[in-house]
């Protein structure tokens, strides 16, 4: 099935909202880290922590979803079904929960402590709902 322009735009909108959420969560996690682990001196040190330190590992699910959306957009034969699966994955991922996997627990905690995370979360939820039928 051909992909509609509406679907392409929604995936782009959700991807951009997820990317903004990731940026805010990364900044939130950086502040949490610095309270206990000391200051992060530069962007190289932060990148190294994000890629290799278990403290930041929970954010990988979010960055991986953004990459999957990029790959979908670049695919020669992108489908509506694949887009629907990505959007459902986004809906599921941004459902914070006190119980559940590490991402959902940490996400819930971040939402309790950061108004910026709450605002970014609401943008993701709004963008995901835009295309609900």
Concise description?
This protein has 133 residues and is an all-alpha fold.
Set down the secondary structure blueprint.
Elements: H1 5-37, H2 43-52, H3 60-74, H4 80-93, H5 102-113, H6 115-130
Poorly predicted tracts of residues:
none
Query: What is the succession of H and E elements?
Result: HHHHHH
For the biggest sheet, the summary is: none
Overall form:
globular
* Helix-strand makeup class: mainly alpha
End-to-end distance: 17 Å
Gyration radius over CA: 16 Å
Number of DSSP E strands: 0
**What is the helix fraction of residues, given as a range?**
over 70%
Share of residues in strands:
under 5%
The number of helical runs is 6
| Mean pLDDT over the full residue set | 93
Summary tags:
133 residues, mainly alpha, 6 helices, 0% strand, globular
Structure report:
- The protein has 133 residues and is mainly alpha-helical.
- 75% of the residues lie in helices and 0% in strands.
- It has 6 helices and no strands.
- Helix 1 (5-37) packs antiparallel against helix 3 (60-74), helix 3 runs antiparallel to helix 4 and helix 5 (102-113) crosses helix 6.
- The longest helix has 33 residues, at 5-37.
